Amino acid sequence: MNRIVGIAIAVVLVLGAITAAFSLFTVDETESAVVLQFGEPRASVTEPGLNIKRPFVQNVKYFDARVLDFDDEARTYVTSDKKNLIIDSYAKWRIRDPLRFYISVTNQMTARSRLGDLIRSQLREEIGRRNLQQTVSGERRQVMENLTRVVSQQAEKMGIEVLDIRIKRTDLPEENEQAVYDRMISEREREAREYRAEGAEQAEEVMAKADREREEILAEARRKAEEVKGQADAEATEIYNSAYTLSPEFFALYRSLQSYEKAFDGGELMLLSPESEFFRYFQKSEATE
User: Fold this and answer.
1) Which of 87, 113, 207, 288 sits a CA distance of 20 to 30 A from 43?
2) Structural contact between residues 93 and 103, judged by C-beta atoms closer than 8 angstroms
3) How far, in Å, CA of 179 to CA of 202, rounded?
4) Which InterPro entries did the record assign (predicted)?
């Protein structure tokens, strides 16, 4: 009897252990989970720890909760000016809502395929709005920001959060490279000619302005010089008049001496009558002797 009771207890314990094993499940820090009942999703678990489910009728589907990579292969896109570009892109994403993720795409393989379709479609639209130069350099950052924002909104319906989308590489097809390079060189040469022409025009304007200012400065200097010279001549005349008023005879002698100095300093031959007014002071001197 005791043996039967012991066996019964052992069976109960075994059944209890099996039931507990099928009733408990753990979720790791790097995981999220969806509880399924007969294949139908019932609940999601996003916090790590020990959890309970109904044994034998429910099972658990685990998903990676870490940030995942999506590295798309290089593809050809067409710009607004009908230029082909080979663009290689990648994305950072994670499963934000495991229940919605399971209902929408079921697994990561399907999710990557759907995410790739969204990225390529939106990237094709963004590139089609811009020309070659804008895509390659001018608005590349804006393209990536718009791409991340729009794709993230669309992927949210699948329980996916898109963290970032980047363009790794942008190349030209080999058959178009030389033509595009030649065109870029021509455009740069045209811009250089325009800059040189504008620089020459500005230089001429600066030189003309400098010449005009120089002439104005010289004219003003000549005007002031004439004013100073006129004032000096007026003062000299006034001094001469004052001297003449004080002693007319001395002033006449002084002026005659100046005339003698200028006349005899040149060494030229002069024919004058001894009775000439020019020699009146010589005559007075001889008469005095």
Assistant:
1) 113
2) no
3) 35
4) Band_7 (IPR001107), Band_7/SPFH_dom_sf (IPR036013), HflC (IPR010200)
pLDDT digits (tens, 9 = 90+) for 196-245: 888 888 888 888 888 888 888 888 888 888 888 888 888 877 777 776 67
How far apart CA 136 and CA 85 sit, in angstroms, is 9
Burial of 36 (0-12, 13-18, 19+ CB in 10 A): middle
- Final residue in a domain of this structure, among 156, 178, 200: 178
Distance between CA atoms of residues 63 and 198, nearest Å: 64
| Residue appearing with tokens 């589907």 | 61
Residue 207 in domain: no
- 139 and 83 share a domain? yes
Cα separation of 79 and 23, whole Å? 57
At position 146, the amino acid (one-letter code) is N
CA–CA distance from 122 to each of 97, 143, 154, 219 (Å)?
23, 10, 10, 71
**Structure tokens given for 247:** 């002693």
Domain that holds residue 20: 2-64
Q: Of the spans 70-84, 97-111, 168-182, 185-199, which averages the highest pLDDT?
A: 97-111
d(CA 41, CA 177): 53
Q: What CA–CA distances, in Å, run from 195 to 153, 191, 198, 202?
A: 45, 6, 5, 10
What does pTM read for this prediction? Answer: 0.56
Q: Which residue has the tokens 């001889």?
A: 286
